[in-house]
Each structure stands twice: as structure tokens, then as C-alpha cells.
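Hallway conversation turned thread

IA: we were arguing at lunch whether anyone had actually written out Glyceraldehyde-3-phosphate dehydrogenase end to end. Turns out nobody had. So, for the record, here is the sequence (483 residues) and right after it the C-alpha cells. Reply here if something looks off.
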Amino acid sequence: MADNTASPEGQLEAWSHREELAEKMVPLVGSLYRDHNVVTSIYGRTLVHQSVIDIIKAHRFARQIDEEMLPLEDTYPLVEALAEMNLGASSIDLALLNKKFKAVGGDVREFLNTELAEVAGGEGAGVDSTRDVVLYGFGRIGRLLARILLSHAGGGSSLRLRAIVVRKNSDDDLIKRASLLRRDSIHGPFDGTLSVDAANNTITANGTVIQVIYSSDPTTVDYTAYGINNAIVVDNTGRWRDEEGLDQHLQATGVSKVLLTAPGKGDIKNIVFGVNDGDIVESDSILSAASCTTNGITPVLKVLNDAYGIDHGHVETVHAYTNDQNLTDNFHKGSRRGRSAGLNMVLTETGAAKAVAKALPELKGKLSGNAIRVPTPNVSMAILNLELEQPTTAEDLNTLLRTESLTGELRAQIDYINSPEVVSSDFVGSNRAGVVDGLATIVNNGTHAIVYVWYDNEYGYSCQVVRVIEKMAGEDVPHFPRA
């Protein structure tokens, strides 16, 4: 029986019972992660480092597909049994695992021994030796990447943030860098502890020592002098976007690969994780993670193109203002961007629509695009105005995207919501590349579809970047349940 039919007393009793189970689940989830490199989730929503309330909310989210809350009475025995299996590195979706178990029935431990046979008794094996990561540039994206990488340290990932490289701007530069990492006006305080060692130019965050290297020339940095080897350098500066410029990082001692957090030019592969990350090969030394907008729209476009075909379309981006705009009217080399970002909607160009074709070649030449910068500091929206090749309805299109967000191959990239009250700030901190606003979907004449996609152009994009870094590092842990 759904919990909304219970009496007030029954509701409170049921809530208390969920709290009790979630409280018991927290240390088990933590142990699986730290000791065995096992990441647990509910329909793609991670349970690692989550509070009791967050765990309950993740179970409640299952209503979107199962019509009722996923009972903790179902998932807790699974987690309890998983904790006893001495598993190897893996990613386990408890909601999907529970659905499969319910379908076959039987003893839960026998089921898990069969379903997870390839990692049972693995003693955490499956995550290779640690891989050094260097952040070249420490602005909005660089600091969020640092937060995500630090949250992954200690289990489930081989990536270790070893250094940041910046130009020294003042005598107290190190203190300012640490302070900007500690406090963020949009994303809130850093979740943990920070300390600064000025003598050694290091920031220690949650036990991870991060070397701060001052340099304006990537070719001159000797990373091995700091014990850093075979590093993946993530260039967040945007100064160089072609192969010749980014190759400067590879001339530094101790670097093996470079990832650009902006659209790459020329023959550089632009990777939208989940769509074309299969194009990454071991020999790739320079890659691009494309743009936040390209990441926000490409997964949705892929789903729609696979299902209906896209004849042509236009993408209009309503984008939060960025650091390349002026706070007050002043000279700017770009058109219109010199006008006050906080007081105006600013029409500007975007290459995101055309850039989609680099990750999804079948859409080459089919999309145009423009952008309007608006006076909000984060979270943007893409309006996909599409002419489809096959007819559909708004209901069927939404069902397709909602199902993809929960159980599809792109569920880590696409989210879905149908609340009538959401606004942009509700999506701050979303770890998906884009969130479909189902109530805004329009379909005219069967083939003319308009789909609205929210995206956290800072955090959601940074999560996609980290997924690319993991792929570059060779991480490939198995996901369960198997199809």
C-alpha cells in the first residue's frame, strides 16, 4: 500500500522506520565505497557521501517510474548482503538490482552471488593504481573539478588531484586560492576541511595534499619535481584550444595526456561523455570535453534522433552570465558583451549547436543556434526547436525521455522533471548534463517538437568532465545489474 493512504500516526511511524533503515545503510554504503571501491546508487543517484535524508529522498525519487516509493525494506537487505561479499570495484544500482531480484525471486544472497559473480570476493580490485591529475587554471570550473575529485578520493576512483597551476597574482595568492575553494557564493561551502602550508605552497583538503605551482608557461613546469608522473593535465584556462597550443602541456616533464574544458579546434576530438566517449583510445594525448551547452543538449538530441530522426532544428540557449562579460558597461572585444551582465539580456553567438555534430555526426548541418546571456549567475536552459522525421506526441516524447533518465544508457547524462514550480536555482548542483522539463514540452502537427532542457553549466558540466578524465585514465568498472 502506498504510504499516502496511511493515517497521520502511521505516516510518522513509517517515516521513523525509514530513518532507522537509512541510518543503518550509511556506514554500509561508506564501507563498500572506501574498502571495496563499490559505488551504490538509486536510478543513477549516488548514495555515497549522502545523508540519511538524502538516501530517503533517493528512494522516494523512484515514484517517477514505479508509481510508489522504493521501499528501504527492499534495498537495505541488498546493501547488508553486498557488504558481506568482499566485492571488487563496481557500480551497483540498487533500484534496478531490486527490480531484477523481484522478478526472479528466491534467496537474496544466492541471487547476488550469481548476479555479481565476476566481482564477488574481489577485495576491492578493479581500480588501477592511482593516476595523477593536474588542474591548469583554477577558476569556476577548476575549483568545481577540485571539489569533485576530492570527494572521489579514498575509494571508487583511481584519480588523485596532485596539483593546480596558476599565475601568481598577489603576495597572498595561496590564501586567496584556498579561500575561493572553501567558499562559493553559488555552490556553497566546501564539504570538508582545508589548511594552507605557505612554506611549501600546498593546500591540504580532506587529507589530500595539493601542490600549488606558479607558472605562466606550461612547457617549463617539471611535475616530477613534486612527485607527479604520467599526469593528466586538465586545461581550464581556454587560452589554447588547438593541438599546437595544448601540446605545450605535453612538453612538460611528467605529463602524458591533456584534456581541454572548452570546445577544441581542428582535429581534436570533442567528447560528450555517454554519447561518443567510445571514440577515446589509449593513444589519444589531447582531448576536449566540449562545452557545457554541447554536453547539456547532445544526449537529449541523441535520444530524440534515435527514436524519431531529426530533420533540422534550432537551439536557443538562455545562458547564465559568465566571467567574460563586464559587470558594468565597458569596452569588450566581443559584440554586446561589454554591456552590463547584471542589468541586461545580452544576445550573443554560440557554436554549441554546430558543435553537436562533432559528437553526433549524423546531425551535421542540421542545427543552428544562438544564445541569450541573462542576469543569473548559474544554471542555463536550452530550447530545442526541432522538426522530427517521425510523428509523435508530447506524452510519448516525454515518456521516452523520462524512461531514458531512469533506466537508459544515458541516465547519467539526462534527468527529467515534471514539477510546475521549478525555476533555475532548483538545478544548482545537478550532476546530470541536462534536465528535461517535461511540463514545457510542446509537439505541434506531430513532427514539430519543442523541448526545454535545464543544465547547471558549472557543476553538471564539471561532472561530465570528470567522467571523461576517468575514461582517459582507463577506469572501466563493471555496472550491475547486467542487462
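OS: looked through it. The chain has a mean pLDDT of 93.
IA: good, adding that to the notes. The two ends are 29 Å apart (CA to CA).
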